[in-house]
């Protein structure tokens, strides 16, 4: 098994959106990743699909006409198109067999429409919450051409790939354990933990349900301790600089 961390631009926002009380009044550039995993059976799996490629030329594509347009500001270059990033790895959208969405926000499901041949895995409770919810723009993921397999709780999806339910950011948000043969265990947190600041400063007030988010953060820390796993935070600029990005990989 091999994992590639694919950079897909940044989403610029006030720091208090991410970790209230830490650097209020400052702006933060949140890296937006997708993860390509080449499974042992030759199949290709993505975890999250990033922000829509529409934002390359139109940063306001998602939130124009809403108060969010000045709060969440995508910044993407042509190279941050997921289709182009995959092509650098000799992978086409039609080569993607599976997609796990940690959740269905615009920066995690924005390119779902590219993968008509894939099976998508989302928690059932989360999917039902997101349908027709304006904070989960449906135009990117709620499409008749896409096939969703709805999950009811935690499970092993493939050998070495496990769904972990981590609510707080959104109902039935899920994180993903990836058991790599050489690197060891890593957990793709999604937005269960945005950055290290959430842990260091006990700063959960930016989450939809701060109490549940704190519990999920503690749960992931315990898993990391018990499983000797590295936590990959959802949008941590400092951590992103320290990680190998595609075309480099982790095995």
UniProtKB/TrEMBL annotation:
Which residue spans adopt a coiled-coil conformation according to this UniProt entry?
Answer: none
Indicate the segments forming the Metallo-beta-lactamase domain, all copies. Answer: 31-235
Native source organism of the sequence: Pseudonocardia dioxanivorans (strain ATCC 55486 / DSM 44775 / JCM 13855 / CB1190)
Please list the cofactors this protein needs. Zn(2+)
Q: Does the keyword Disulfide bond apply?
A: no
Task: List the protein's name.
Answer: Beta-lactamase domain protein
Output one GO MF annotation: metal ion binding
**Gene3D superfamilies assigned:** Ribonuclease Z/Hydroxyacylglutathione hydrolase-like
Which terms are listed as keywords in the entry? Hydrolase, Metal-binding, Zinc
Q: InterPro entries, per this entry?
A: MBL_superfamily_lactonases, Metallo-B-lactamas, RibonucZ/Hydroxyglut_hydro
Indicate yes or no for the key word Zinc. yes
Family classification: Belongs to the metallo-beta-lactamase superfamily.
